[in-house]
Design brief:
This protein is mainly beta. It has 1 helix and 9 strands. It has 2 domains: 28 residues, no CATH class; 101 residues, Immunoglobulin-like. Helices cover 12% and strands 49% of the residues.
């Protein structure tokens, strides 16, 4: 109970002091992201997320990558800085054999803590790189 009160007090203090959001309490519109999956070196796949802005910003990303139903990479809250339309978020390369089912679950948070992109995409690795969901 004491911990809940402490967390609540910290959040209220941050809001009042202007640490969260703009000083006047308004927030800019959230940035939208467009995903891209391409082939990389060898059998690796490269996943990028492009914001619809040229203004560089930092984003926190939580993701889980599964290849053939096994988790190959999972990270919570990785910060990417200087992200813009010309410098997108790039997840670690995904090694996958042709025909492997690859599933990527990603959530991107902006500097205000808002979820600006969330999706789960499943595709088949190979020459055709077929997206299934």
């Amino acid at each position: 109970m004491a911990l809940t009160c402490l967390v609540g007090a910290v959040v209220v203090a941050a809001l009042v002091s202007g640490c969260l959001g703009e000083p006047d309490g308004s927030l800019p519109p959230p940035v939208e992201f467009t995903p891209e999956v391409t082939g990389g070196a060898g059998d690796d796949l490269v996943l990028r997320y492009y914001p619809n802005t040229t203004e560089p910003a930092s984003y926190s990303v939580t993701f889980e990558i599964r290849v053939a139903w096994e988790v190959t990479d999972a990270v919570a809250g990785q910060v990417f800085s200087g992200i813009s339309a010309t410098d997108p978020i790039e997840l670690p390369p995904v090694p996958a054999e042709p025909g492997d089912e690859v599933s990527v679950q990603v959530t991107i948070f902006d500097e205000y803590g808002r979820i600006v992109h969330t999706e789960t995409t499943t595709f088949l690795a190979g020459e055709g790189l077929q997206v299934t969901t």
